[in-house]
Specification:
Blueprint lengths: L5 E5 L5 H11 L6 E7 L5 H8 L4 E3 L11 H13 L4 E4 L10 H4 L4 E5 L11 H8 L3 E8 L9 E8 L6 H25 L9
Parallel strand pairs: 1-2, 1-4, 2-3, 4-5
Antiparallel strand pairs: 5-6, 6-7
Bound molecules: 5-O-phosphono-beta-D-ribofuranosylamine.
The site of 5-O-phosphono-beta-D-ribofuranosylamine has 14 residues, from α1, β5 and α6.
């Protein structure tokens, strides 16, 4: 039997999707191993959650830009991933736009989860965008990452109803419940398909 695919998880926030992935791995529902958890923010909760699972963590050096790493920072990240023999990069609440050379180094092997039914409501606070638009349902999407933000090939989606009394917080919480189901399942689907008909650059 071949070794489980080696993942790095990148996140900037509270890491609930990372926890869902690691729990799915421990429960034998996702054949993968999280080798490294990386954050751009030294105090991100995702790092302490990773440490609580006994997983190695790394923090990226500060970037001069708010929304992306510097080209040097992105190169250092590629080095770190290569040094750890990472095969797949899994974004879980990572708040920087992925640029070259990372995109090229891991073409077709970077995956993200977004809190809307893409292509609707790309960008930040997608649940709030859905609420303000007055739509009756939203959801979450697992997709490949390419050079266009929240626009790579869609792997899987899950619908979430919007209730009349919803606030941004209650809606985001309901979307997150769906995310925690969808992300491990969608990732398992991608990783088990060794022929990779997906996400070809
Ligand atoms: C999720 O809603 C995800 O869709 C978005 O950022 C949030 C991360 O949440 N990309 P968490 O850090 O996994 O709890």
């Amino acid at each position: 039997m071949s070794a489980s695919p080696r993942l790095a998880v990148l996140g900037s926030g509270k890491g609930s999707n990372f926890v869902a992935l690691q729990e799915a791995i421990l429960a034998g529902k996702l054949d993968a191993q999280i080798v490294l958890v990386i954050s751009d923010l030294p105090d991100a909760v995702i790092l302490s959650k990773a440490a609580a699972f006994g997983l190695p963590t790394a923090t990226l050096p500060p970037s001069p830009f708010r929304t992306k790493l510097s080209p040097e920072g992105e190169s250092a990240l590629v080095e770190l991933l290569r040094k750890n023999d990472i095969e797949w990069v899994v974004l879980a609440g990572y708040m920087r736009v992925v640029k070259e050379p990372l995109l090229n180094a891991f073409a077709g092997r970077i995956i993200n989860i977004h809190p809307s039914l893409l292509p609707a409501f790309k960008g930040l606070r997608a649940w709030e965008q859905a609420l303000l638009a007055g739509v009756k349902e939203t959801g979450c999407t697992v997709h490949f990452v390419n050079q266009d933000v929240d626009a790579g090939e869609i792997i899987a989606q899950q619908r979430v109803p919007i209730l009349p009394q919803d606030t941004p917080e209650t809606l985001h919480a309901r979307i997150q419940v769906a995310e925690h189901e969808l992300y491990p399942d969608a990732l398992a689907k991608v990783l088990s398909d060794r022929r990779r008909p997906w996400g070809n650059p």
